[in-house]
Amino acid sequence: MELTHRFRMPLVKLVAPRSLLNLALLVLVGCGGKPAAVSGLVTVDGKILDQGSVTFSPTGGGMRASGIIQSDGSFQIQTNREAGLDVGEYDVAVVSREIISTGPNSPPRPGKYLAPKIYGKTRTSGLHFKVEQGSNEIDLALSSKVGSSAGKSKSKR
Predict the structure, then answer these.
(1) Per-residue pLDDT reduced to its tens digit, 21-30
(2) Selecting from 2.60.40.10, 2.40.128.280, 3.30.750.24, 1.40.20.10, what CATH number does the domain 36-155 have?
(3) 133, HSE (Cβ side, Cα atoms, 13 Å)
(4) Contacts of 123 (CB under 8 A, 6+ apart)
(5) Degrees (nearest 5) of the Cα angle 126, 74, 79?
(6) Does pLDDT of 153 surpass 90?
């Protein structure tokens, strides 16, 4: 027995075109998310930086994106809770400080800077990158010698 709609048309003939239309719309609109992904490695004088954060601020204004530096020095950027960020020009800041425990019932307090303080603000870091659509690998090679060039960008597609 064949399932039919009230107009006596087989149900499969009604569902199939809608499914194809929905699939076509999904492909055209996309699944959401940001058009660019950024990941990389943070080092200071060639040594892995194992904690902290990286912030990408669009030079033309807009939504900032950030990522946590993992124990292996790697980071991945996200905008709010969404992976990735928009394509464009970005100024970058890196903040990393020791965490000092003050006791079992007290919150930890920040200690000395592990990355030079100059990198902690986008306007003083000197780190500027162009983020392109797709996958971008941006390694941040910081220097304790202020004024030297910092950061190298490699783009992968």
Answers:
(1) 444 434 333 4
(2) 2.60.40.10
(3) 1
(4) 91
(5) 70
(6) no
